[in-house]
Amino acid sequence: MSPTKHSNETGYKTGFSSMFFALALAGVSSLSAATLEVDMEAEGKAISPDLVGIFYEDLNYAADGGLYAELIQNRSFEYSATENASWGPLSFWDLVESDEGKGYLSLGNMRPVHVNNPHYLLLNVETAGSGVGIANEGFDQIPVEAGKSYEVSFWAYQAYMGKKWGGSPEEEAEAMPMTARLESQSGEVIAEAKFVVQGREWKQQSATLVPTVTTDQARFVLIAEKAGGIALDMVSLFPHDTFMGRQNGLRKDLAQTIAELKPKFMRFPGGCLVHGQGIHQYYDWKDSVGPLEQRKAFRNSWGYHQTLGLGYHEFFQFSEDMGAIPIPVVSAGVCCQHSGDSPGRGQEGMSMEEMPGYIEDVLDLIEWANGSPDSEWGAVRAAAGHPEPFDLKYLGVGNEDAITSIFEVRFKMIRDAVAKRYPEIVVIGTSGPFASGEDYENGWGFARELDLEMVDEHYYVSPQWFWDNQDRYDTYDRNSSEVYLGEYAAHEPDRRNTLRSAIAEAAGLISFERNSDIVRFASYAPLLSRRGHTQWTPDLIYFDATDVYPSLNYEVQRLFSINGGDTDLPFELSGVDASEKLVASVVRDSKSGDIIVKVVNGESQDRSATIDLSSGKKKHYRLTGFVFGNEDAEIVNVDGAGPSVKTLEESGTVKPTFERVFPANSLTIMRLK
Ligand code: AHR
Q: Fewer CB within 10 A of the end CB, N or C, for the chain?
């Protein structure tokens, strides 16, 4: 490494002066002298203080087996071959016959716990022995910690006792003793709770398990200890220790990693997930609220099962817990144009008979989020523990839909109904999956026709694209709709999360920030990906059952998020060739009073520049700096090895004009007070 490169050791803090001199003295570049001259006295233009947020979609096992803290897989016996040809309601469950025990599993649908949850398990115990039951190993594995509490719960009723046919009245009158256990990989019992199931009506049972041993490979076992038949559903093992201690909450380490991005908003639940594959396969928010056993699990667009245990209430709660603006997205009454194995030709619209009912559902969502607890849907929210409104302000309608007349008619019906009943809600339109092209043009044309307040753009492009399109938003009409860049990412040909891609996104963010008088929100996509269950790369945060692995791209998002401002200041960057990858933004944050200068160098060599703040009144500035970069643009994070590039923090004092070296492939953020 050349002496001009900054250290990759993170956590390394240094007095600014020593760092400054080390960098400033190095003769680093034969390029012409660059100067970044800021007009410190300018009023500047107001920009979005909420530019950086997140887009959450249940893709790559982001919900079940991901952010949702449930540890049992297929808890409601609703897995189906439509999700995966090898799956069925009994997938991920094994029959357990201990000692002389003998029995079998069958499936019931005649007396479901709720109509939305049609299948249940019938555990048939022919000979009890030391117990006959079921076992589950979760999503690849069940990690538990000694001394921590886990809630085991299940719904059950006695289908019969003794023999199925011809059991004696005495046997029929008996209760069924049951035991729930956690076992280590060697079969040792590490936690246990006893239950008694009695009666022909569904009842929920629950108890707390506290394992005596920490293991990443626990097995959950639930056994019945007499001959008979027990109906079981919603068999759950849930840690008490969730993010913010919420019941039915989120996996703590993962939610915490997301919260550390300090997202200003959260878009959910998709993505393609929203409109679904097939006209009646859309994500119906009503299926995702209320008691868990009444939620309607189904196949999500990414080809696996979603329980909806993580549903609208949980999304809104998570947004609130992070201080993020909630931005739900609903279908525009059309399904994905790629539905029915017909790429680009599968768009269908709901019938005109169905549309009024669907529109009422959309209006009900607004009432659910913002209505008083006395309203029909506000009461559902209140019953779930949130009497105060969630303060919904934005509603996405549609996602990357082909802009056809089928779409336009339905979108307009929904938009008009929302505008009539809830004129304060901003409806966000859609401009297709690309940065340009037919749907982009038509989507924007349609938005202008309807005078929409905001349009959702998406683009997944090469790292070079972000450098070549620095001026994209400079020319957007300031009197037209605002932009929500709902999905974007720099894609390498092999879709790795390289430093090059992260730095290209930083360059993109520079251009969004400079234009965030019109670009109000921007979110990287996708957010989460479980190792071994990934349908899409690159992603921002990877994880497995026990660990979380943020990408280099995550760090860029975090740095921009925690260093945003509300006023864009004019500046001139001179001495930089048009083809050179060196871009900057300068903003003021009125809360802290800081001027925040961001510079991204995408070249493979260091670059020096003079920072000129001399138009301001101060003689000195207190500087807090963040430098993130590495001479190797190919570098990636390796799971379990910690970040391959760490942000160097520095602080010190600088004069109004100072020299600065911007290392190769780096993002530098300087907060000046
Ligand atoms: O982010 C992954 C997918 O990309 C989203 O579901 C969709 O909107 C886009 O095509």
A: N
pLDDT digit string, tens, across residues 196-213: 999 999 999 999 999 999
- Select from 55, 536, 539 the residue to mutate for testing ligand 1; criterion: most ligand atoms less than 8 Å from CB: 536
Q: Is 400 a catalytic residue?
A: yes
Degrees to nearest 5, angle at CA 73 with 72 and 77: 110
Q: What is the average pLDDT value for the chain, to the nearest integer?
A: 94
At residue 301, the 3 state secondary structure works out as: coil
pLDDT tens digit sequence for 36-68: 999 999 999 999 999 999 999 999 999 999 999
SS3 81: coil
Confidence of residue 323 (pLDDT cuts 50, 70, 90): very high
Q: Is pLDDT at 397 greater than 70 in this prediction?
A: yes
Q: What angle do CA 120, 121, 125 make, to 5 degrees?
A: 150
Question: 0.85 cut: is pTM over it?
Answer: yes
Per the listing, tokens 């996509």 go with 525
DSSP bridge pairs for 107: 121
CA distance 28 to 545: 45
- From 55, 400, 401, give the residue whose CB has the most ligand 1 atoms within 8 Å, as the site to mutate: 400
DSSP class per residue in 591-606: TT--EEEEEEE-SSS-
How does residue 26 score in pLDDT terms, banded at 50, 70 and 90?
A: very low
- For β-strands 648-654 and 150-161, DSSP reports them as unpaired
Share of the chain above pLDDT 90, in %: 92
The minimum-distance atom of ligand 1 relative to the CA of 526 is 1
Indicate which residue's Cα is closest to atom 1 of ligand 1: 526
Residue 28 above 60 pLDDT?
A: no
Considering Cα of 439, then 445, then 446, then 452, what sign does the dihedral take? positive
Tokens of 652: 């010190």
| Closest to 571 in 3D by CA, of 464, 672, 654, 652 | 672
Q: Specify which residues 152 forms β-bridges with.
A: 207, 237
Query: Which residues form ligand 1's pocket by a CB distance below 6 Å?
Result: 57, 59, 270-272, 399-400, 433, 458, 487, 525-526, 536
CA distances from 155 to 54, 235, 287, 501 (A): 36, 7, 19, 48
The per-residue pLDDT for 239 is 98
3 state DSSP class of 474: helix
- Report which residue type is found at 343: P
State in Å: Cα 272 to ligand 1 middle. 6
Q: Which neighbouring-strand residues pair with 542?
A: 529, 549
Q: Which of 400, 457, 482, 631 is catalytic?
A: 400
Tokens of 452: 């929409």
